[in-house]
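ok trying this again, last paste got cut off
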Amino acid sequence: MKTAGMIVLAVLCIAGWWFARTAFLAAYLAAWWFCSGLVMGGLANVWVHNLTGGTWGEAIRAPLLGNARHMWLLAVLFLPLLFGMQDLYPWALHAANGSQRWAGELQVKSAGFKSAWLTPWFFILRSVAYLLVWSLLGHLSQRVALQRSPRFSAAALIVYGLTVSLAAVDWIMSLMPLWYSSVFGLLAGTGQMLSGMALAVLLATRRHPLPAAMVFRDLGNLLLMYVMTWAYLAFTQFLIIWSANLPHEIVWYVARMHGGWLLIAWLLALFHFFLPLLILLFRHAKEAPLLLGWLAAGLLVVHLLDVCWMILPSLSPGWMQWAWSVPLAVLAFGMAAWIAMNRQAVEAGHV
């Protein structure tokens, strides 16, 4: 049954690639970024625990370290995006046609640097470097000598912070190459750590026996911190761009104010910030495993919506194509994650 499902999904993905390549690749990128956030964001929270200590980290270390073992697989699954980069990135298409027309439209001082930065060979080289670094960090974090090392964790957090910021600029921001934001990389990295913590909280609420109430209170406080940091960065980016009102800066938000995307923005404000904030402000809510687990699951769903909101409006396909491409990509990555987790559980049972 599992094999049959994988074959069906593979055939559907190939069909999606063939008939609507841009829509499928954009949805694929969104699903890939979400899954990589669960892995690397979760691992970053383990590094934070190595630096700060506390009983909260003991409840989440094992599954998050286990997930990091599969970063190499996510690195391999990124290859279709490199093969299809001309269908996603306008600068790559113009470069293939021998044109730099998109760069000529940007009348700012950074135009020359951006033209040099966004060249296909350099983009591929940087992408491979990010993936190798993340895979190496995932591998080194499994070593007994480094699993709890504060020095390694501090260095790993610095490297991860730099690479995730650059990767967000390269893979997401450059979908609209005329737009830029100095806070975007930090915002994307914070979203990954939020999703990693949400997954950790969800897994902690399913443990048997359950951790102590104090552990859930600490995990709830950390989740609250991530929710507030994400909201602060997202609002700061919007406020600065809105107040300046420059054409090459507002283009990103203009694309997200039409075709139903404005409704998605309000849903994110409500369910990615206001509702979690309201719940997590109460101590009893943070100490209730059932409620905290449902909240964490809801944040994962809404964060996937946030990732789609960051990526999909930058491209032209409409809602009819998003209606099938996004569920297909999410289902494909969900199937891969389910198989990997089952294999991880079997291997743990044999130890």
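PB: full thing came through this time. Residues 2-350 form one domain.
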